[in-house]
Amino acid sequence: MEFKEITLSEKYINQLLRIPESGMGYHLVDVVLENGVELKGLTILNCEILRIPIDVNLSLEQIRKIKILNK
Amino acid sequence: MFYDLHTTERNKLLTLPETGMGYQIIEASIQGSYSKYKYLVYNCELVLDFDSSFIRNKIEVFQLGYLKSLNKAQFISLDTNTIKVYTKSQALDYIKGFFQIKLMSEADKKEKKRQVGGKAAIDSEKEYADGKEIFVRVSAFENDRRVDLVNKKLLDGSFTTTEEDYNNCVKYSDDPVDRYALPNDDKIEWAFYFKPVSKDILQRGIVQPAFDHVGGGIEVYFEKGTSNDTYLNKTKYGV
User: Among A5, A70, B185, B222, which has the highest number of CB atoms less than 10 A from its own CB?
Assistant: First the structure.
């Protein structure tokens, strides 16, 4: 699968810095959009780069919430 | 996505052989449809789409836990007359081809000093650092955000490997992305060194397979990070 990257805003970066990683350098997350759709099982690298499948159209403004998948 | 099965389908699967211990790889139609799809079924009840979303869904199930996943799952209605279970040998070529899973022989693992079996760090016993051992965090990012350069420490809830495992990775020309089962294929460029003090708590474990990577490296989890002034320096990877 191919991915593209979105750089997150400071708000989410600061949130992720305070939350344990899922592994070395990344968080596994679900992203909830403003329209209620959930994008499940995405990866955020270095607390700042959200990787999404290349065929998904998403802008930062569409993100309502990022949920961390806890172990 | 993942699903739950109605009693009729569960009972049907109970009459059919497993593909492996605790699971069945099946092909079946949804009721009312002619198209057949592949699924992986755990314990004759929890169903995952066996396609390009499988790895992602499996990670979610692993993160949630089995029971929570089952509670969260929506029902799927399979036509029990169409259910076909794959044997392991029948499934293997499909698995290798579709997922392009990297398989590593035991000999290769031994040669590259990877570990076999064992628990993830987060499931392991807590221990205190000895104040002498050095740990290394590998990263594609020079500005790795879990490295607090102001207080010279590792942030709470962060992972490293041991210096020994890092040196083995470099010495035996191993692939750090595969060894530490990292989600992105960006080249690892940097190594950050830490020497926690004796009050810092850590958990050691083995990197579990993930993201189509074998794992087997050593991982170390610092739930509370490290103390101030435990960050030593960074180098380019492999230097």
Answer: B222
What dihedral do alpha carbons B202, B176, B169, B93 form, nearest 10°? 110
**A35: enclosing H helix or E strand:** none
Q: Where do runs of H (alpha helix) occur along chain B? A: 7-14, 54-64, 66-72, 88-99, 106-111, 163-171, 176-179
Chain A hits for B60, Cβ within 8 Å: 28, 30, 40-41, 69
Q: Which residues of A touch B146 (CB under 8 A)?
A: 17, 21, 25, 46-47
Interface A:B, Cβ pairs < 8 A: 86
ipTM of the complex: 0.78
Q: Does B143 touch chain A (CB under 8 A)?
A: yes
